[in-house]
TrEMBL record:
The keyword DNA repair does not apply. The keyword Plastid does not apply. Coiled coil: none annotated. This is Methyltransferase type 11. It comes from Desulfarculus baarsii (strain ATCC 33931 / DSM 2075 / LMG 7858 / VKM B-1802 / 2st14). Residues 39-134 form the Methyltransferase type domain.
Amino acid sequence: MKTNAKEFDEIARTIFWPLYPVVAGQMLARCGRSAGACLDIGCGGGYLGLELARRSLFHLRMLDQSSQMLEIAQANLTASGLSGRGEVILAGVEAMPLPEASIDLAISRGSIFFWPDLATAFKEIWRVLAPGGLAQVGGGFGSAAIREAIGDKMRARNGGDDKWRAMVRRNLGPETRQKFTEALDEAGVAGAEIIDSEEEGLWVVLRKPA
């Protein structure tokens, strides 16, 4: 997928910013821990991972296949004062250069809709999860109210065109959930949970037994 890194980052930084604290809080609550190794897959500018790191003691690994996005993520990591417990990794989700059982919390918001091979991605996430680890990957905005507020701003940005809301409905709709279910079955990942909520969004949650 080709993206304009600067435009993508500007939208993430200015329009999407209200969702990061809420989603990070939901992820930490679901994880039930506040330290360890956290992997932000398809991190973009790193805003979700950095918000999570600010609220915890996790060491953050930000992974993206775009070198341009990682330059932005690295700059944000440095500016946040968290560079002592964070790093960037250039790679895709299907082949992550990480040891087996090395990640306590794997997160990803928004990038899953562009993964070309969901089953391979789920297998790879499962491989890097440590015993007792959790992964939450998918899409959501923290609440329906935040999603609608962002939708209003995106419509204004697009000159009154509501194409962004149509994309979100498609991404978070039943066809996508079915794709997730089929890919999880193909991957053979045991105990996966799908969260499909008007408030939280559509997420795949993987919990590795301790």
